[in-house]
Specification:
This protein has 119 residues and is mainly beta. The protein is built from no helices and 11 strands. It is elongated and about 45 Å long. The model has no long low-confidence stretch (mean pLDDT 96).
Length: 119
């Protein structure tokens, strides 16, 4: 069973920065994509950013130019560097990994980590 270990989020002032990390308990060779999603109170979970095994990236319009997703392939770890944070970035951030292992596809979520941006 694939497991994800996310770093702690935190409280940061508007305009500040924060970096999240997420390590998967699976070989990077099995991973197709990793990503970050977020869910604010009263809202649906939404995509923040994803990165594929080929290093293709995709960002939500709301975070383009402010957030950067990257990965450390040998460590099966994905990072989300968040700069110029805004109060509307406040949410629980979830890591996700998709891949194929022993012929079976997997789609695994982390436990979520709270990011709070104060104005």
């Amino acid at each position: 069973q694939v497991q994800l270990v996310e770093s702690e989020g935190g409280l940061v002032q508007a305009g500040g920065s924060l970096r999240l990390s997420c390590a998967a308990s699976v070989s990077a060779f099995s991973i197709n994509a990793m990503g970050w999603y977020r869910q604010a109170i009263g809202k649906q979970r939404e995509l923040v950013a994803t990165i594929t095994s080929g290093d293709g990236t995709n960002y939500a319009d709301s975070v383009k130019g402010r957030f950067t997703i990257s990965r450390d392939s040998p460590k099966s770890t994905v990072y989300l560097q968040m700069n110029s944070l805004k109060p509307e970035d406040t949410a629980v951030y979830y890591c996700n990994v998709k891949g194929r292992l022993f012929g079976l596809q997997y789609d695994t979520w982390g436990q979520g980590t709270q990011v709070t941006v104060s104005s």
